[in-house]
Design goal:
By secondary structure, the protein is of the alpha/beta class. The protein is built from twelve helices and ten strands. The strands form two sheets. It has an eight-stranded parallel β-barrel. A two-stranded antiparallel ribbon has the order 8-9. The radius of gyration is 19 Å and the shape is globular.
Length: 298
């Protein structure tokens, strides 16, 4: 009987090869300042916030392209007020040479502002291919979603993977951030068992103030118990400090089994700033002393 050798686990720094970043429309100056530390061709997701208008989003997308990086504009399904609005935004992305890659998410509004109830509705609209989209990112939730049940989340990601195959689009998953590798790895194994074979970028918070990290965690339903905090490297009794993802990334690399968990990368939510995250990643990849996170902020 042939014995199949297990695939080698990546070194911690290897997980950062091809990492991606997230920014808002207001982060252009920060991105420009951080650019020397960011590898050429890095994917930069541009969020679709309700507090920012289309022109601000497009200006950020153009800046990412101008800086030699790959823009990944978000499409927030429930924030789109009409098919015409989606059509116009995709058209503007094509004009900016930035329509190849998009990230499609349901979005925060509890009631859709237009005809798209969820990300699947956008994927099935037919407009993505019409405007030259080739790769679509979708969301994954290892620790669940505050407003969506687990069975619905699994059904959704299975359907998204199927629709992408049917439409001839390549895809990947970006997970919600977390502080504990255990639910991430369990979710990855369950996803593979369900036939979801898309590459996954594990969401990681960049170095930031503990208060800020906890505020975002509460908003998105991310676990922050004392045991989890200790494993990640911060204390719930001292909220004035800062924390970076060093321990999380090392633990993920140590426990990642490519045969069970599939292809992995990292996606950084830059809560502490693009500069702090980029400097951290540059140091961590080379094994140099990782710089201290930015001073704690609210």
């Amino acid at each position: 009987m042939d014995v199949v050798a297990p695939l080698p686990r990546p070194a911690p720094g290897d997980l950062l090869d091809g990492y991606s970043l997230e920014m808002t429309g207001k982060d252009v100056a920060a991105l420009e300042a951080a650019r020397p530390a960011i590898p050429d061709g890095t994917r930069v997701n541009v969020t679709f916030l309700g507090t920012e208008d289309t022109e601000l989003r497009l200006a950020a997308v153009r800046a990412v392209r101008r800086l030699g990086l790959v823009p990944v504009p978000h499409l927030s399904a429930r924030r789109l007020r009409s098919r015409a609005e989606l059509d116009a935004f995709l058209s503007a992305l094509r004009d900016a040479d930035a329509a190849d890659h998009v990230f499609v998410v349901g979005g925060d509004p509890s009631v859709p502002l237009g005809p798209y109830d969820d990300a699947l509705a956008v994927l099935r609209s037919g407009l993505l291919q019409e405007y030259g989209v080739r790769h679509v990112g979708v969301s994954g939730y290892p620790e669940g979603h505050p407003a969506i049940s687990e069975p619905v989340l699994w059904s959704a990601i299975e359907e998204k993977a199927a629709v992408l195959r049917e439409e001839g689009l390549t895809g990947s998953v970006i997970t919600q951030f977390g502080f504990d590798t255990e639910p991430v790895l369990a979710w990855l194994e369950a996803a593979r068992d369900r036939g979801v074979d898309l590459p996954v970028r594990v969401g990681v918070p960049g170095p930031a103030g503990i208060r800020r990290l906890l505020r975002y965690a509460a908003r998105f339903g991310v676990g922050t118990g004392a045991g989890i905090a200790k494993k990640y490297g911060f204390s719930l009794t001292n909220l004035m400090g800062t924390a970076g993802p060093d321990r999380f990334v090392r633990a993920l690399a140590e426990r990642h089994d490519p045969g069970r968990h599939g292809e992995l990368g990292l996606h950084f939510y830059t809560f502490g700033g693009i500069g702090a995250t980029s400097d951290w990643a540059a140091a961590f990849r080379t094994g140099a002393q990782v710089p201290a996170p930015a001073p704690a902020s609210a």
